[in-house]
């Protein structure tokens, strides 16, 4: 596509910013309030569970109908790895965007594929974690901790899954050569959503896993 | 043609890969510091500095988390370069969200205290 044709495709708005970009930022703003309600619910009920399993090790708690020493369910090393991977995926997607804007298809496809792989790893980590907790006797309704934890991290995980599907469709388009520099805004919008998912985890990780 | 030529009004060219990489490194270091603060405050690591870290571990984790949040928003989400309208669209709900979290915690704490008496 020529520069003139690309220029003709641009949307002219009163703000001077593409409407799609304003729309994704508005969505991100509303999502901030959604996650704020979930985080505040988690914090309000933090430490109020009457029975185990509990997030961190306690000398005494009610577990399987008897007072006993409780082991913490969290595996900090695994979640730290997941956090680092998600942070790196944010770096990978900006590199993919840079490639898309410069018309470097090899760079675009490589970094975007790496981003999708990171997203898949994070979702797999969460599936493993939920499965592990369930086998330790922590169902959704076991205690206040489990209900608020599964709701908060589950909704975040579903957002990551949506991001993975979104980026995967763009990856297929990029491989087919249908994501030229003129259409790089499509990737920029998906990348903004992906970064938002990342910043939400930046808040969830210390609040849920590291603060006692 | 320069990078600004086709950028819509209110938007500027995005950072370079070198800057993106530096930000990624800082984010990684901040995450490592978070885990080290947790281990020093509650875990087995750094027993010598535990009395110093333990009372401030929550504040420390919040500061580190806020720093990571700001770095991603400014450089990866391009708020530093893009229009201020987009910054406002993000910052206003963030402030509202912080208010919701603080308000709910204070309110529930108040009712628990009243209920206890």
Key features?
heterodimer; A: 212 residues; two-stranded antiparallel sheet; 2 strands; 71% helix; elongated; B: 117 residues; mainly alpha; 4 helices; disordered N terminus
Architecture blueprint of SSEs:
The complex is a heterodimer of chains A (212) and B (117).
Chain A: H1 3-9, H2 19-44, E1 58-63, E2 66-70, H3 76-102, H4 105-135, H5 144-175, H6 184-210
Helix pairs in contact in A: 2-5, 2-6, 3-4, 3-6, 4-5, 5-6
Chain B: H1 17-42, H2 50-53, H3 57-76, H4 84-116
Helix pairs in contact in B: 1-3
Strand order of the largest sheet of chain A: 1-2
Mean pLDDT of chain B: 81
Name the CATH architecture of chain A. Up-down Bundle
Number of distinct beta strands of chain A: 2
**Total domains of chain A:** 1
DSSP summary: helix tally of chain B: 4
Order of helices and strands of chain B: HHHH
CATH superfamily of chain A: Cytochrome c oxidase, subunit III, four-helix bundle
What overall geometry of chain B do the principal axes of the alpha carbons give? flat
Q: In total, how many beta strands of chain B?
A: 0
Q: What are the segments of chain B in which pLDDT stays under 50 over at least 5 consecutive residues?
A: 1-7
- Into which percentage range does the β-strand content of chain A fall? 5-15%
Task: Describe this entry's structure for a reader.
The complex is a heterodimer of chains A (212) and B (117). With 212 residues, chain A is mainly alpha-helical. Chain A is built from six helices and two strands; from the N terminus they run H-H-E-E-H-H-H-H. In chain A, strands 1-2 form a two-stranded antiparallel ribbon. In chain A, a hairpin with a 2-residue loop joins strand 1 and strand 2. The longest helix of chain A has 32 residues. Chain A is elongated, with a radius of gyration of 21 Å. With 117 residues, chain B is mostly helical. In chain B, helix 1 packs antiparallel against helix 3. The longest helix of chain B is centred in the C-terminal third of the chain and has 33 residues. Chain B is flat and about 60 Å long. Chain B starts with 16 loop residues before the first helix and ends with a helix. The N terminus of chain B is likely disordered. Chains A and B meet through helix 1, helix 2, helix 3 and helix 6 of A and helix 1, helix 3 and helix 4 of B.
